[in-house]
Amino acid sequence: MAQIDRLLAAVVSQQGDGLRLAGDDAVHLIGAGGPRPLTRQALSAQQVLGLLREIAPPDAAREIEAGRAVSFRYVTAEGSFVADLRVEDGRWSASLTLDGRGDVRRITGDHAAVQPAPAVSVGSSAAREAAARDAVERLLRTLVEMKGSDLHLRCGEPPIVRKDGQLVRLEARPLEDAELEAMLLSIMPDRNRAEFVCSVANVK
C-alpha cells in the first residue's frame, strides 16, 4: 500500500472531494466547506514529492523528475483519483480529486458472500494448489456473472471487479499475502514459476 492511500481513504470516509498537498504545509482535505487541515504537521517539499513519486506511472515520474507539471489517474481500493501536479517558483504542489469515472463501489446481494477460499495450510502441496486454484476460479465465475471486464487482486484488500467502467469492491475479506501468492502460482505456467518465486523473494 502506498503511503498516500491512508490519506485518500480519509477523503472517502469524510466524504471529501480530494486532497491538496504543498511543501511546508499540512495536507488539506478538499470539500464543500472549503479546504481544511487533514494532518497536524506540515510536509516538506521532499515528503510531498516522495508521496507523489510512489504513485506516479513511469511517464509521469519522468515529467516530475524534469520539473514539469503533469496529471495522471491513480486508482486505489477506495476510488479513482486525478492527480494534478504543478511547480511554481521551485515549489511543488498537488491536488488529488475523486474521479467519478472510477469510483469504487461496494456490491451486495447475490455476490455479497463471495469469498476466496483460504490457502490450505495442512496436507499435500497438491491439495493446497487445488484449493488456491478453486479460489481463483470462483472469483472468475463471479466476474463473468457480473459481466465485468477486469478482476483486481491486491494484498490487504478485498477482490475488486471492474464493471461498466466502475470499480466494484466485493463484500469479502481482504486477501492475505500468502493466499494471493498461492492463487497466482496455482494458475501460472511452470515456465514462469521460478522467475516469479525469485522476484517475490527479492522483494521480501
What is the secondary structure topology, with strand pairs?
Elements: H1 4-13, E1 18-22, E2 28-30, E3 36-37, H2 45-55, H3 58-65, E4 70-75, E5 80-88, E6 91-98, E7 104-107, H4 125-145, E8 150-152, E9 160-163, E10 166-170, H5 177-187, H6 190-203
Parallel strand pairs: 7-10
Antiparallel strand pairs: 1-2, 1-6, 2-3, 4-5, 5-6, 8-9, 9-10
Could you characterize the architecture of this molecule?
The chain has 204 residues and is an alpha+beta fold. The protein has six helices and ten strands. The chain has helices at residues 4-13, 45-55, 58-65, 125-145, 177-187, 190-203; strands at residues 18-22, 28-30, 36-37, 70-75, 80-88, 91-98, 104-107, 150-152, 160-163, 166-170. Strand 1 and strand 2 (28-30) form a beta hairpin. Helix 4 (125-145) crosses helix 5 (177-187). It starts with a helix and ends with a helix.
Features:
alpha+beta, 4-stranded mixed β-sheet, Beta-Lactamase, 37% helix, 24% strand, 204 residues, 6-stranded antiparallel β-sheet, elongated
How many alpha or pi helices? 6
Number of domains: 2
**Number of extended strands:** 10
By CATH, the architecture of the largest domain is named 2-Layer Sandwich
What portion of residues is helical?
25-40%
CATH class of the largest domain: Alpha Beta
Query: What general form does the structure show?
Result: elongated
CATH fold annotation of the largest domain: Beta-Lactamase
Question: What would you report as the Rg, rounded to the nearest angstrom?
Answer: 20 Å
Main beta-sheet strand count, sense and barrel state = 6 strands, antiparallel
Estimate the strand proportion: 15-25%
Terminal Cα span = 14 Å
Q: Average the pLDDT over all residues and give the rounded result.
A: 78
Which structural class best describes the helix and strand composition? Answer: alpha+beta
